[in-house]
Amino acid sequence: MKTVLGFMLLVISCTPARAPINGVHARDMPVTMQFAEGVPLLNRALIYSAADDWQRATGGAGRVEFVDGGTIDIRITDSGPLGKCTSTEMILRSDAPDELFRAAALHEIGHKFGMNHLPEGVMMANITPDENCIDELTLRVFCSAYHCANPRATCH
Predict the structure, then answer these.
(1) Cα separation values, 114 from 3, 6, 18, 41, 62, Å
(2) Which is the CATH superfamily of the domain at 31-141?
(3) Cα distances (Å, whole numbers) of residue 27 to 66, 77, 113, 124, 151
(4) 45 alpha-carbon distance from chain centroid
């Protein structure tokens, strides 16, 4: 049974980089991100972990590099939606429990890769802490556009 902690994920569509392939607006890899000033270490660790999950699940096709001067700023806020992304930002709310924060990070990174919402799994519109991994459906849709080598869902 899934537990909802009263948080709802609201997402503003990210600007696609190319025409969609099976509903995925494929981007050039890697997607580069930088942390805005003041992002707490725990939040950084959860975002690093989410990015690593995407890379492992997709056999390296879904890559995020954290660099100074990255094209996407990661910001943390104390209010507003749990997560959202724009063409230049990924914004996550700091007061979410760790599992939900990480699930939101996975979801928003998926949007940065060009993914749209799916009916289930980490890319569904209303995320819960239970969607804290890269599921089979998300992986299948992602890999239809990016041609993953040895894809493996990270859900156990």
Answers:
(1) 27, 27, 9, 27, 11
(2) Collagenase (Catalytic Domain) (3.40.390.10)
(3) 16, 26, 6, 20, 18
(4) 14
Terminal Cα distance for the chain, rounded: 15
DSSP state of 12: P
Tokens of 112: 């940065």
Query: pTM of the prediction?
Result: 0.81
Question: Is 153:145 a contact under the CB 8 Å cutoff?
Answer: no
What are the E-state strand segments in 11-85? Answer: 31-35, 64-66, 72-77, 83-85
Tell me the domain boundaries of the chain: 31-141
Do the Cβ atoms of 126 and 103 come closer than 8 Å? no
Do 102 and 132 form a contact (C-beta atoms < 8 A)? yes
Q: What angle do CA 48, 84, 46 make, to 5 degrees?
A: 20
Q: β-strand 83-85 against 89-93: which pairing, if any?
A: antiparallel
Q: Are 53 and 134 in contact (CB under 8 A)?
A: yes
Q: Over the stretch 64-85, which tens digit does the pLDDT of each residue have?
A: 988 887 777 788 776 677 788 7
Identify the pLDDT of residue 125: 92
Q: Are 114 and 14 in contact (CB under 8 A)?
A: yes
